[in-house]
Design a protein that fits this description.
single chain; 134 residues; alpha/beta; six-stranded mixed β-sheet; two-stranded parallel sheet; 8 strands; 33% helix
Length: 134
Amino acid sequence: MAKIDIAEGKGTLELRGGILRLRWKAGETIRDDDALAALSHLQERYQGKSYPMLILVDSVTFSRSARRLLTSPACASRIALLGSSPVDHVISLFFLHSQATPCPIMYFISLRKAMSWLRDGDPQRKVPQYKDLS
């Protein structure tokens, strides 16, 4: 799938190598309407099929409702959150602890490790720690 702009240019979405990549622009605040725009594209293109998803959270904040929407069952089979700082980790903890999630979610600071977990990781494992997993 070609990369498409979502949420009025706040982010991009693409399917590459069987993994969805949701990239939000650094400095953005993602609200429920932005999350709904991403989900709308997912549902329109994949009609209920879920894929492993990489969500880049580098310097991005999320509203509570956006976090809930982005971890909905129809969204992904598992989610890797990729950030680069302790602040990104704290934001990711809201994903990991704010509500029960329907799929495994893990935070990474290494793209290579995140992609490996998305492809091959234990689908039952959910580790809410700040780890590079190197």
